[in-house]
Amino acid sequence: MASPAIDCSYLTPHRDREEPIFVLYRDGDEGWRDWLGAVVDRIDRLSELPDDWDSYGGLPLSDEAVGATLDLLSYFGPEYLAPEVYPSPDGGLLLQWETPSSAIEIEVGPSRRFDLLIIPKGEEPLELERLPISRLLLDYYDDLKRALRQHP
């Protein structure tokens, strides 16, 4: 039996770059494209940071951290709050959300590992380090979705 043709039209290069960032877009969902596009624009600007960008030896963004961040964010969309995105000194990215019920941080390291910090208001924080994306999504995806869903 012949395998079906694979549609790669969802691969869209982000701007003119020597090594473009490719982003998965869902067909017919402009809201999702706008949501992720704004985050990708921020990551793209941060990718221009030079060595020692923070005057304390900060490393430029690693391709691995950028790829892992985009992998993670592809599981979310416009029905969720978009993260604030910051560089971390080790070449990774820090994603932050502030909601009425909690503060959430996910640090994406250059090793494609995730550090997760959830601080629910009035409760004990949850802090986990060096999670692979599979564990983050299997064990904490529902909690993250519930916390980050935008309410009309």
Give your account of this protein's structure.
Residues about 1-25 have low confidence and may be disordered. A hairpin with a 5-residue loop joins strand 5 (about 100-110) and strand 6. The chain has a 5-stranded antiparallel beta sheet with strand order 3-4-5-6-7. The protein has helices spanning about 30-45, 65-75, 135-150, and strands spanning about 10-15, 20-25, 85, 95-100, 100-110, 115-120, 125-130. With about 150 residues, it is an alpha+beta fold. The chain has 3 helices and 7 strands, in the order E-E-H-H-E-E-E-E-E-H. It has one domain (about 10-150).
In a few lines, what is going on in this structure?
With 152 residues, this protein is an alpha+beta fold. It has helices at 30-46, 63-73, 133-148; strands spanning 11-14, 21-24, 84-87, 93-98, 102-108, 114-120, 126-131.
The count of β-strands is 7
What's the helix-strand series? EEHHEEEEEH
Which sheet architecture does the biggest sheet show?
A: 5 strands, antiparallel
How many domains make up the 3D coordinates? 1
What value does the Rg take, in angstroms? 16 Å
> Would you identify the regions where 5 or more consecutive residues have pLDDT less than 50?
1-23
Please give the count of helices: 3
- Overall, the morphology is globular
Q: Round the mean pLDDT to the nearest integer and report it.
A: 81
Strand content: 25-35%
Span between termini? 47 Å
Q: Would you tell me the structural class of the helices and strands?
A: alpha+beta
- Helical content, roughly? 25-40%
